[in-house]
Amino acid sequence: MIKGFKIGDKSSKYPIIQGGMGVGVSLHRLAGTVSREGGIGVLSAADIGYLEPDFETNPKEANMRAIKTEIEKARKIAGPDKIIAANIMVAMTDYAGLVKEFVKQGIDLIISGAGLPLNLPEFIEGSKTKIAPIVSSLRCCQLIVKTWRRKYNYVPDMIVIEGPKAGGHLGFKRDELFAQDDKKPSLETITSEIVSFVRDLEKETGKEIPVIAAGGVFDGRDIQKFLSLGADGVQMATRFVATHECDASDAFKNAYVNASEEDIQIIDSPVGMPGRAIRNEFIKSKEDHKLSITKCYQCIKTCNVKDAPYCITKALINAVKGNLDEGLIFCGSNVGRVKEIVPVHDLIQELMSQCEAASVRTA
């Protein structure tokens, strides 16, 4: 029987993490349900308070207030012994403040990428919160591990490897994403390299460090493939959008169901990173003219408001609320394979049945 993995003094039943998706796509309803059903649910910290009544006038305080509410609601759904995690992007303007507040409110695990989380350990001192960097290469992984050990005497509690087929903002250069298949970075290759490095690290430190593969993982056969490469689990996001419990609007979910492979586009995000999204009227319109930005939410450090073609916060909020013609719909590379909206329970059981069957065939 395929089992999950341990994070601190808690364990997941299954080797599945639901990837954090913002703005507002993975909040308490989705994260809590995934954890209840045996996976690890992840809250997205990106403008987590966008539904607060004062978000437009005071986004920073609204986000801080929502952290406590979202964790409490997720735990109520999941149960007290389940793992609730948060995804916090290094590129966020108030990164340190958000991390500190999630730790204060007792989040079990922080997963952090969109930049190198080199100072993340300093924010969890004296807490039970565990931390996991998101990396896109062995070199990146080694740099983070070296820095954490030297500056904080801390070894990651988990490592998430995100490949080039992921959704949203991507940790790869444009030329890498458009390279020929034989020259394109492969999640399989990166996973094998990092697993080897981490197993040596485990022997050296005596600490178990789960390795998680992410980016383009679609079904149970994919899960089994990465388990056979030595990973302890996978992180999946796109599949969890097309669930009844996903916190996004029905219009957002249906955009996934109706998308084809030809609808996927690599965009240049206003925050200075490439991203994968569904090509819609919003993206088409921004190719011709720049949208006037009347308000800045101070969300991302790297966003240059003067040159940005649109406000990414506003575009993502429009999308999650269902105003798709004015919204940016991030997605993974396999969104064209999503055909229906199902309960989280059914999705996880389907994934695990496929994984078990694939395991038997390869045994």
From TrEMBL:
Gene3D superfamilies noted in UniProt: Aldolase class I
Keywords from UniProt, A to Z, are: Flavoprotein, FMN, Monooxygenase, Oxidoreductase
Recorded hits in InterPro entries, A to Z, give: Aldolase_TIM, NMO
The record's annotation in Pfam families points to:
NMO
Any one GO MF term held by the record is:
nitronate monooxygenase activity
Endpoints of the signal sequence: none
Q: What does this protein do?
A: Nitronate monooxygenase that uses molecular oxygen to catalyze the oxidative denitrification of alkyl nitronates. Acts on propionate 3-nitronate (P3N), the presumed physiological substrate. Probably functions in the detoxification of P3N, a metabolic poison produced by plants and fungi as a defense mechanism.
Name-wise, this protein is Probable nitronate monooxygenase
Q: What is the lineage of its organism?
A: Bacteria, Bacillati, Bacillota, Clostridia, Lachnospirales
